């Protein structure tokens, strides 16, 4: 579903991603771990062209999104993204936040979109909050709305950038549970996270990044229990 070949990304003359080659299969859940500043967010943002790609290829379902001729709107429909900060529109209701993107697309009728988005709110456990405004929700509820909003475009891939890092600890589990459900339904997911429990339980594979490079990748067991690289071991010893 995702193929990254020799990806380089620079900001000015600062190269922050160096020669990354990686693949994510359809229905696979890949967790990306690594120290702060190692390029995890930039890597994720290159997968839906929130960042221009300096060189290399990023294929989503065989479409090279690095090609400037590729329609960015099509890329964004296929690749949903959930950020650490939820970026909901404060003056719109929960349901309107979720409906916004598909309404802009004008592909389906308003009634169809409304009914689909209500189903998504049900899925994330917030059907009763459809008419509420974001300010009345907890951080965990806001993040679940953000997940529903990303799903409203029927993406082929979902990207999560530290979706639980800004949440109070007691709200983290609800969000992880929604992500786990999504994984069990077969969604292809790339998740930047510090939740090692989630990575072990839900992740099919783990990528460890350091200084803009993909240092190590493997199953959670390989990366956590049979760690090959000293740098990975050092990182894990600090966080586990
Ligand atoms: P991580 O998500 O692993 O913490 P990032 O991808 O956010 O790492 O950042 C990797 C490096 O790229 C950092 O050195 C950061 O300062 C730099 N960087 C990220 N975004 C920008 C930007 N828009 N402009 C310039 N430098 C950036
Ligand atoms: Mg980051």
UniProtKB/TrEMBL annotation:
GO terms for molecular function: ABC-type amino acid transporter activity; ATP binding; ATP hydrolysis activity. Keywords: Amino-acid transport, ATP-binding, Cell membrane, Membrane, Nucleotide-binding, Transport. Its main location: membrane. Gene3D superfamilies: P-loop containing nucleotide triphosphate hydrolases. Transmembrane segments: none annotated. It is found in: Cell membrane. Residues 2-236 form the ABC transporter domain. InterPro entries: AAA+_ATPase, ABC_ATPase_HisP-typ, ABC_transporter-like_ATP-bd, ABC_transporter-like_CS, MetN_ABC_transporter-like, P-loop_NTPase. One of its GO terms (cellular component) is plasma membrane. It is a peripheral membrane protein. PROSITE patterns: ABC_TRANSPORTER_1, ABC_TRANSPORTER_2. Belongs to the ABC transporter superfamily. This is Amino acid ABC transporter ATP-binding protein. The lineage of its organism: Bacteria, Bacillati, Bacillota, Bacilli, Bacillales.
């Amino acid at each position: 579903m995702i193929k990254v070949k020799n990806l380089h990304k620079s900001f000015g003359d600062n190269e922050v991603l160096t020669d990354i080659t990686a693949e994510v299969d359809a229905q696979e859940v890949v967790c990306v771990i690594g120290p702060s500043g190692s390029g995890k967010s930039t890597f994720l943002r290159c997968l839906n062209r929130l960042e221009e790609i300096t060189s290399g290829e990023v294929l989503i379902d065989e479409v090279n999104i690095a090609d400037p001729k590729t329609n960015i709107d099509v890329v964004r429909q296929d690749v949903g993204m959930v950020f650490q900060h939820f970026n909901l529109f404060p003056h719109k209701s929960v349901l309107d936040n979720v409906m916004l993107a598909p309404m802009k697309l004008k592909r389906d009728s308003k009634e169809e979109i409304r009914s689909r988005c209500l189903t998504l709110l049900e899925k994330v456990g917030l059907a009763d909050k459809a008419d509420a405004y974001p300010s009345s929700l907890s951080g965990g509820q806001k993040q679940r709305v953000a997940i529903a909003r990303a799903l409203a475009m029927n993406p082929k891939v979902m990207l999560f950038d530290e979706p639980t890092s800004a949440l109070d600890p007691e709200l983290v589990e609800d969000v992880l549970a929604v992500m786990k459900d999504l994984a069990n339904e077969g969604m292809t997911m790339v998740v930047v996270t510090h939740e090692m429990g989630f990575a072990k339980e839900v992740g099919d594979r783990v990528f460890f990044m350091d200084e803009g490079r993909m240092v190590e990748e493997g199953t959670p067991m390989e990366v956590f229990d049979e760690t090959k690289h000293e740098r990975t071991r050092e990182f894990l010893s600090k966080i586990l």
